[in-house]
Design a protein that fits this description.
148 residues, mainly beta, Lipocalin, ten-stranded antiparallel β-sheet, globular
Length: 148
């Protein structure tokens, strides 16, 4: 099995996550990757954003991860028309694995670094720069085992 398919298959299920946004706060929560079909996983994130000022806000987001041979594409929408990031794998890739992708949203550039440590942990870091946005996020995801 190719590494893209191995990683895609390992994503299904529940994950805990912690996201640090320097000078803004952190988000702690859970992510569920639910299989929509054999080549599409729905990513549902729910968490609590604790700001540096002591406020707590509920947060959520959805993405759709699709497998296409040696590539995992991440879309904003279920219709798979609004691409966010593409992760392109090489045939010889093995864990730990670091991939990069970018997305231009209007004039703001999202540069993502995805690090797959093993089948039970991965990290996503974004550097966002542009006229409207300027921040970095660091997120660690850990697989929750034994959840039915």
């Amino acid at each position: 099995m190719k590494i893209a398919a191995q990683i895609f298959d390992s994503l299904e299920g529940e994950w805990s996550f912690k996201r640090i946004i320097p000078n803004q706060g952190e988000i702690n929560g859970r992510v569920v990757f639910h299989k929509e079909n054999s080549s599409c996983l729905k990513y549902r994130e729910e968490g609590v954003f604790s700001t540096v000022h002591g406020d707590e806000l509920n947060s959520y987001r959805d993405y759709y991860y699709t497998l296409n041979q040696d590539r995992i594409d991440i879309f904003f929408d279920k219709d798979l028309k609004n691409l966010f990031q593409s992760l392109i794998f090489n045939t010889n890739d093995t864990y730990p694995l670091k991939l990069r992708s970018s997305h231009l949203c209007s004039k703001d550039l999202y540069e993502g670094t995805y690090t797959f440590e093993n089948a039970g942990q991965f990290n996503i870091n974004y550097v966002v720069n542009g006229p409207k946005k300027n921040y970095t996020t660091y997120t660690v995801f850990k697989k929750v085992y034994g959840v039915s």
